[in-house]
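Lab notebook, bench 4. The sequencing result for the construct came back, and we need a structural model before the next group meeting so we can plan mutations. Quick request posted to the team channel:

Model the 3D structure of this chain.
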Amino acid sequence: MEGKFSLRASVTSGLVLEDVRVPASHMLEGVHGLKGPLSCLNQARYGIAWGAVGAAIACFRAATDYAKERIQFGRPIASFQLVQAKLAEMISEIVKAQLLVMQLGRLKDQKKVTPVQVSLAKRNNVKIALEIARTAREVLGANGIADEYPVFRHMANLESVYTYEGTHDIHTLILGREVTGMSAFT
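Done. Here's the predicted structure in token form:
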């Protein structure tokens, strides 16, 4: 796709299949319906949950380094209460996201992970990473949109990640179904 503002390093394209016949010899064994093909999404979503943490850390580091170096009113902006509050909130969310995916990885290793747990991690970690990118952009001020810093690139990419491999809303409905026992999918 030409003219993308996000995921520019990723080859993206459309794919249309019409009147495609798959011979029985190429079908997935023991799989009925979409459950089989969609099962690969769990691995992708698991990776996304980790990747979002990496993007959040990069944004946090950029904001922290910038805040320590940027002098305003004769002192680094990192010494101001509101900037420190933003940095404290960012690192708190990063640590929680790390703990979530670390536990998810442990469950995966034990073959006890469920698709709902993977949805929760993807939903949570992408959301907090996007919030951290936005907050980091605030800390950097006008420099937050400059390509000298990674923040805006991560923010644009996270906007895309928010909607691929299952949108935030779809993961919300997956969790809602698990919590209530009632499907809102119609």
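The chain has six helices and two strands.
Will bring this to the meeting.
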